[in-house]
Amino acid sequence: MSRKEANTLDIVLMGREYRVACTPDEREALQGAVAFVDEKMREIGAKTKSTGERLAVMTALNLAHELLSIKLPGGFDLQEFRRRIAGMQSRLDEAMASQEQLF
After folding, report:
1. Measured between alpha carbons, how far is 24 from 82 in angstroms, rounded to an integer?
2. Chain segment 57-88, per-residue pLDDT in tens
3. Distance between CA atoms of 57 and 59, rounded to whole angstroms?
4. How far is CA 50 from CA 27, 30, 38, 62, in A?
5. 58 or 91, higher pLDDT
6. What is the pLDDT of residue 12?
7. Topology of 1-69 in CATH?
8. In the chain, at which end, N or C, are there fewer CB atoms within 10 A of the end residue's CB?
9. What is the torsional sign of CA 77, 78, 82, 85?
10. Which residues contact 55 (CB under 8 A, 6 or more apart)?
11. What's the rounded Cα separation, in Å, for the pair 60 and 69?
């Protein structure tokens, strides 16, 4: 096995084969992700009769929505956390811009 082959993984999503970059220590996690995405694509495809690119986009949007809607233990709201981080980043950008004018 060449070094290039050692850093790739052949996967199958909805019957189509893909070769993706993957280090050996990430293989197991990526295979789990592939199985999860394949299952979601099949579920959404069965409900909507979508195929190809549209199915991939619908699945990506569905998974992103699920991820952003997660409330973690202790009442941690991931979406609220992201909004707060974006607000802090904006305030930092403003502060840095005013500092740059001093120099």
Report:
1. 31
2. 999 999 988 887 777 677 777 778 788 888 88
3. 5
4. 29, 25, 14, 13
5. 58
6. 93
7. Double Stranded RNA Binding Domain (3.30.160)
8. C
9. positive
10. 14, 41, 44, 45, 48
11. 14
